[in-house]
TrEMBL record:
Residues 1-241 form the Deacetylase sirtuin-type domain. It comes from Nostoc minutum NIES-26. The active site is at 104 (proton acceptor). PROSITE patterns: SIRTUIN. Pfam families: SIR2. The keyword Transferase applies. InterPro entries: DHS-like_NAD/FAD-binding_dom, NAD-dep_sirtuin_deacylases, Sirtuin, Sirtuin_cat_small_dom_sf, Ssirtuin_cat_dom. This is protein acetyllysine N-acetyltransferase. Keywords: Metal-binding, NAD, Transferase, Zinc. The keyword Metal-binding applies.
Length: 241
C-alpha cells in the first residue's frame, strides 16, 4: 500500500464558500489582518477578535465538502494518506478523512489565551489547555485549567505553526506520492514542505496559479481543486490497485 501525503491550502476549500485568508488590501472579510489574527490584535480588543471568529465558526459550520474534499476522502479510504492542511476548517473531516494535521489550528476548537504566552508573561509558565467546542467562544468563557480567557485554537501571525518536525522526519522516507493543492507554496514555514518532500518519487501540484519556478519536478495541473482532484485520485487508484 503506497503512503500518500496531501498538503492543502485555502484553494482546496474556496469552492465550498470559504474565502481565502488574504483579500485585496490585506483585509480578511473586511477586517485588517493585524486586528483579528495577531496577538497584538487580541490584546487590543478581545471582543472584536471573538466576534470575528464566531462569525467564521458559523460560516464554516454551514459549508459542505466539495468534490476535491470527497476525492481525497476516497483516496484515504483505499491508501495510507496523511492530510497536512493550512486550513482551519474541518471540511476534510466532514468528507470522511480521518488523518488530518492542521498546521494553523481548527476553528471548532479553543485553547487558553496563555497557551502561547498571551498576554506577555513568564515563558516558563504557559497553560497547555486545548479543547473542542460546539459553539463559538464568548467573552468570559474561561479556561477550566487556569481560569484565563479562552480563545480560538487558531495560529495567528507571530505564533508558532504546528510543524511536528519529528513526525515529518519519520514519515519522509516512506512517502510514495506527494500532492499539493490550492496553495501558493511560497509562505514559510509551510513552504518548506515542498523542499522536505522533494525526493518523493511522484509529486503533483494543483492550483489555478502555480509558481512554476518552484515546481520543476512536479506534475502540474493548472486549475481548481474540484476540477482536477477527482481525476487524479482515479488515476492513482487505478495505478496502485
Amino acid at each position: 500500500m503506497p503512503k500518500i501525503v496531501v498538503f492543502s491550502g485555502a484553494g482546496l476549500s474556496a469552492e465550498s464558500g470559504i474565502p481565502t485568508f488574504r483579500g485585496s488590501g490585506g483585509l480578511w472579510e473586511g477586517h485588517r489582518i493585524e486586528d483579528v489574527a495577531t496577538p497584538v490584535g487580541w490584546m487590543r480588543n478581545q471582543q472584536l477578535v471573538l466576534d470575528f471568529y464566531a462569525q467564521r465558526f458559523v460560516q464554516m459550520q454551514q459549508c459542505q465538502p466539495n468534490p476535491a474534499h470527497l476525492a481525497i476522502a476516497q483516496l484515504a479510504a483505499k491508501f495510507d494518506v496523511v492530510c497536512i492542511t493550512q486550513n482551519i476548517d474541518t471540511l476534510l473531516e466532514k468528507a470522511g478523512v480521518k488523518n488530518v494535521w492542521h498546521l494553523h489550528g481548527r476553528i471548532d476548537c479553543h485553547k487558553c489565551e496563555w497557551h502561547f504566552g498571551i498576554p506577555p508573561m513568564d515563558a516558563e509558565w504557559q497553560c497547555d489547555y486545548r479543547g473542542a467546542m460546539e459553539k463559538p467562544v464568548q467573552f468570559s468563557d474561561l479556561c477550566p485549567k487556569c481560569g484565563k480567557q479562552l480563545r480560538p485554537d487558531v495560529v495567528w501571525f507571530g505564533e508558532a505553526v504546528d510543524m511536528r518536525v519529528d513526525d515529518l522526519y519519520q514519515m519522509v522516507s516512506l512517502v510514495d506520492v506527494f500532492i499539493v493543492i490550492g496553495t501558493s507554496a511560497t509562505v514559510y514555514p509551510a513552504a518548506n514542505l515542498l523542499k522536505f518532500f522533494q525526493n518523493v518519487p511522484e509529486k503533483y501540484f494543483v492550483d489555478p496559479n502555480p509558481n512554476y519556478q518552484a515546481l520543476n519536478d512536479f506534475t502540474v495541473f493548472q486549475g481548481s481543486a474540484s476540477e482536477y482532484m477527482p481525476s487524479l485520485v482515479t488515476s492513482l487508484t487505478t495505478k496502485f490497485c
